[in-house]
């Protein structure tokens, strides 16, 4: 039976491994710098869902809350990952429904996330849910020491 629950610190080792797997899928494993210790040290900020098939972890979604000067409070979906064998089975819909419920419970005005330009299946999935894909802005990041 597939379950989707809020993750606890006990789930972090499995989530960390899936983060590494996801980065490999994205062809950017060198970009992962977070450690299991970082995740545990930031337990108040590290919000995650874990997807299990019985006892086996098969996916995760990480998110956080933000505030936009233009539109107010939002839930930002940082990562959504399912192992290959669990894709195209309706689990993405269930995960997004769960995140929408969390966003509504926290009085968010919107949900936001990034999607890789090359990931056509994900883009189609998000559009099917009614998401607007904005081509106007570029993602910027300044690494701090």
Main attributes of the structure:
five-stranded mixed beta sheet; globular; single chain; 4 helices; Aminopeptidase; 145 residues; alpha+beta; 30% helix
Q: Count the helices. How many?
A: 4
Note the quaternary state here.
single chain
State the helical fraction. 25-40%
Structural class: alpha+beta
* SSE string, helices as H and strands as E: EHHEEEHEH
Give me the CATH fold name. Aminopeptidase
Strand fraction equals 25-35%
Overall outline: globular
**Largest beta sheet, briefly?**
5 strands, mixed
Tell how many strands the DSSP assignment holds.
5
Looking at this structure, what is the CATH superfamily?
Gcn5-related N-acetyltransferase (GNAT)
- Let me know the average pLDDT: 92
The low-confidence runs, each spanning 5 or more residues with pLDDT under 50, are: none
Distance between the termini: 43 Å
GO molecular function: N-acetyltransferase activity
Protein name: N-acetyltransferase domain-containing protein
Keywords: Acyltransferase, Transferase
Family: Belongs to the acetyltransferase family.
Overview of this protein structure:
- With about 140 residues, this protein is α+β, with helices and mostly antiparallel strands.
- It has a single domain (about 1-130), classed as Aminopeptidase, CATH 3.40.630.30.
- Helix content is about 30%, strand content about 30%.
- A five-stranded mixed β-sheet has the order 1-2-3-4-5, sandwiched between helices.
- A hairpin with a 3-residue loop joins β3 and β4.
- The mean pLDDT is about 90.
